[in-house]
Amino acid sequence: MAIPIEKVLSQDMVVKIVSDTDLFSIGSLFITALVVIATTYLTIKNFKTSMTSHQKTEMMKIKLHEKVKNRQQWIESVRSTVSEFCAVSTTMAEISLSLDKRISVLKSLEQNAMALEALQMTEKFDAQLSRALVLKNSLHLLLDPDAQEAQEVLEEIDSIYRIISDSSSDNYPKEELYSRVSRVIELTQFVVKSEWAALNL
Length: 201
Hints:
The chain has helices spanning 5-8, 20-108, 113-142, 148-166, 174-199. It is mostly helical.
């Protein structure tokens, strides 16, 4: 007859499979795993929040850039339209009065070839003068009249326009015109350089 093994082993010899120290180690391992999982979850969540915030900021920058760009285009369109309107309005009266005189002169000269050529040259001059007026008005709208350098540019431009509009071929002051054109170029370069410096802040 066989003796049961439990009776053979004494109670002192029985080995405990799980001790208190083992339970503490397993608990620590389980808590560490939970902390790692929670930390990973929070890190991923914060990363997603940060990316979403960054994307929103970038979208706001893009929208702001587009609004500024659209606003600048609108301002340029308004300036150009107002300038052209001013030029056309101011030259219409002069053209209508002088056109009648030219037609009567042409008829009295019986359409002489020289008279036709003179008339064409006068019309070309008037077209150029009208274009100069458009450009002058554009510059008045583009430049800040409160800025000292811009005021100087505008004064020189007005002087140039007076020279070309008031002069006849007999008393055309070319030296003064060229001097003023050079001055406008210098002043404009200074204004542009100042604007570029302000943009690089």
